[in-house]
Amino acid sequence: MQNSSGALDQSFIENQPWRDWISITKPGILASNLFCAFAGYGLASRLQFDDLALIFIMFGTTFVVASASMLNNFLDRVRDLKMERTRDRPLPSGRLRPRNVLIVGILTGFVGMATLYIFVNPLSAVLGFIGLFFYVVIYTAWLKPTSTWSTSIGGISGSMPPMIGYCGFSNELEPGAWLLFLFLFLWQPPHFWSLGILKKEEYRAAGYPLLPVIKGVSRTKIQMLPYVVSLFFINYLLFDYNYVGVGYLTISSILLIVWFIACLQGLFTKNEARWASSNFRLSLYFLVLSLLTMLFEIALF
After folding, report:
1. pLDDT of residue 139
2. In this predicted structure, what is the pLDDT of residue 54?
3. Please, where are the H alpha helices in 81-121?
4. Which residue range forms the structural domain that includes residue 202?
5. Is the domain of 190 the same as that of 156?
């Protein structure tokens, strides 16, 4: 809340537990986005770090992603009450005040983009703004409650951190930045749809028209396949443009084959919940191990 002078009320400082403020930044998602931003910077710089520039890139990205998560929590607070997985979050449970979260979310986003603009370069700030806008306005406010396209189009926001990291060093949209964008953009739908299958009844109860809810689980599993297959081509292009070597191409492709086989098995499984949970974790392993292999290979050669 604000008092007549426009300042945040004292309860903002005294009464709100910090663990709730941390939780609405979605620390797991924040950490994964920062890792992707670091990988983007590592690919562009070939691990020849300018420590100060990297610090500002990570600081600015942290604030932009945290802002997006806080504003997402603000907009989702009513529907979150209808889902067992989310009803105990700080906003739907009443532990945090919506107006305070809205104000802090906006200020945090401003600090993040200003940091990128002033201390990194204007291009990285533009990319940060695009990611924030797509996640809050296009995904959360518009598509998530209205369309099955929310996951695919919303993936644009999750593809910005590696581009911010890459362009924070390069200051231009080179092919490497676009390939990282496509890598994350294609990875996100099959990753999130696994969670959507696992929690489809909760999403149905909350009124979210997620693909498994509207089109069914079988259709969702089939739709995962072209995204996973397309990642083979992105891996090859990263190799063909000399951004990665044979080591990355081999290891990441093996991981991708394992994930693709798991997706195929999903078409015939009798235990959808166990398969969806396993496939969700497998998609994370693929992302993390692929990017780690990329960085490790760069460090060696």
Report:
1. 98
2. 96
3. 98-115
4. 179-301
5. no
Name residues of the chain where pLDDT drops below 70.
1-16
What lies within 8 Å, CB to CB, of 144 at 6+ separation is 76, 150, 154, 208
Which DSSP string corresponds to 170-199?
HSS--HHHHHHHHHHHHHHHHHHHHHHHHT
Query: In this predicted model, what pLDDT tens digit does every residue of 38-56 receive, in sequence order?
Result: 999 999 999 998 789 999 9
Domain identity same for 154 and 284 = no
Query: What pLDDT shows up at residue 15?
Result: 53
Query: What is the number of domains present in the chain?
Result: 2
Closest to 124 measured CA to CA, from 70, 166, 67:
166
Q: Check whether residue 148 and residue 268 sit in a common domain.
A: no
Q: Which of 91, 89, 41 is nearest to 61 (CA)?
A: 41
Buried b (16+ CB within 10 A) or exposed e, 226-264: ebbeebeebbebbbeeebbbeebbebbbebbeebbebbe
At 187, the amino acid letter reads: W
From the list 200, 192, 202, the residue with the least C-alpha distance to 83 is 202
| Coil/strand/helix, residue 39 | helix
